Amino acid sequence: MDDLVVIVRTTCLLESRSERYGAYLERVLPGRFGPFVRRWAQEEGGHGRRLRAWLAVHDPDFDFHEAFRRFSTLPYHHDRAADRAPADELLSRCVVEALAAGFYRALGRATDDSDLRALCRQLMADESRHFTGFLRALNSFEPLPWSRRLAVAAQRVRELDDDQIIFASHCAVGGTTYDRDRARADYLRRVYRMYAPDDLAFVGTLIARAMGRPVPPVARPALGRALAAVLQTKQRLLPRGDGPEPLWAHLRADLWALLPGRGRARAPAG
Fold first, then answer.
1. Over the stretch 30-88, which tens digit does the pLDDT of each residue have?
2. Domain spans of the chain, in order of start
3. DSSP 263
């Protein structure tokens, strides 16, 4: 199956679950943010409908209803003990919206389909606007300490391959038995390949704004190259069906890829 079709299917499922995301945010954020959250959730749901309309034309064999039924069996933030504090959640949402804007930027650049490219430009603009809205909400609180911002952002990035995304990709391809490790490797390999350094620089610049550390324009190309080196190394370390990737491999990949002259080299074994 075409990589971009799998990615669009998966994204359609994720965006179509926006009412659960909105309900969670209304639970953890102060009531004054209710109107903003509800408008955000409606727009995210609209993204799902627009992606579904594209799939109906370009991928008519995709059974959205069955895939979404299966995906909806996965709980979302059902454990209230794991709820984030309001400022932590708003920073987390800034990271997610930055990643989403960069994702649509990369997807639009990677496709040859003019309709999908135009749609991705519109969705990227929406996600960028959502980022600004969540950042404005975050800035209405007392500033988080730098160490706290770093911890929250790092945790949210680490959650990019949680079951919400990986199980959605499994449902998108119509898999039977859910092998999480294989589904994770298959999906991340597809996604990693579509990013260019300028897409990653765009994401990194937005996240740095949320962290209170703006990136000077002159430094953005270097940031993009560094993040691309990390992503390339992570892609090489994805398992090929031999079992899950060990936690240390993530750290080794990040550090090795950032060493001067090592961006295109394979991390040493052992």
1. 999 999 999 999 999 999 999 999 999 999 999 999 999 999 999 876 666 667 899 99
2. 3-258
3. T
